[in-house]
Amino acid sequence: MEPHRSHHWKPTVFTTPTWCSVCGEFFWLPGLVCQTCGLLSHPECKVAASSCMMRADPSVSSVGQRFLNVSRMADSIVSTLSPEVDRKDPEHGNVYRIHYNTIVGGVRSMEQERSARFPTISIQMHFVPDILGLKMSTWNRDYEAAQQIFGPGPACMLARASIKLLHAQLYRRGSNLRTKKGVVKSGSDFLSMIGYGVRGGRERFFTYVLKEDKMFFCETGQEFFRDFTSKHAMHANCDEDVRYSGEFHVLKNKHGDHVLYVDNNSGTYSPEKKDLPLIAEIFRKKLPGS
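Predicted structure:
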């Protein structure tokens, strides 16, 4: 049996959403990174870390080494996901899943833990190609944040691997997450699912990405994503092309009815504003009454 190789831990402050390689949960406070293999750990998790799997290779840059490690971690997590196969039958409504995630590390009370929980939501959107045809929104070459993700070079490769890992963590179904599944058959159902766009007595905005047959979204202003480079890239699983993206929110009209307002506010993909009527048609057709 190969002897256990110790990690060479160094305290590190993470400025973007980061996860522990040992327990798989997220944290903001200072953590530890192995200077040899790039493993990330909560201070309290390091005793359970597996053996250091790599030795420093002088021919590989620190960024390149980190990319290799994160890529392997991403492949490992994605391979454990159970496929979300849902009936594609508009007569039976749109299947949705709300994934309740928790940021850990620094949460010291039940009240803080509740406030640290946040949902990411995926919902079926039937037959998007019927309305959009071949229209796609490609990542914006003129947007600096998008260049840092989709551009060439090892740093961008690392960013993409990290974002894909984050997407897998936030949208996975597993023991460390609580997932609620349901069916939306109308606009009223959808508005009810998102609490009519209000939480804690305040109006909320949502960041969304529309793909071939699903929409992925969460609250725009959640603390977890405040400093994140691109929320749209995360929801899109770092795809270079999506159907559409932007934000939406809910307001009451003069009659007191709740109305869903959808826009194209996405620097990452910069979808064309002239296609918004088509997006509205998708919502009306797939979510009658919205």
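Summary: Residues 13 and 139 are 30 Å apart (CA to CA).
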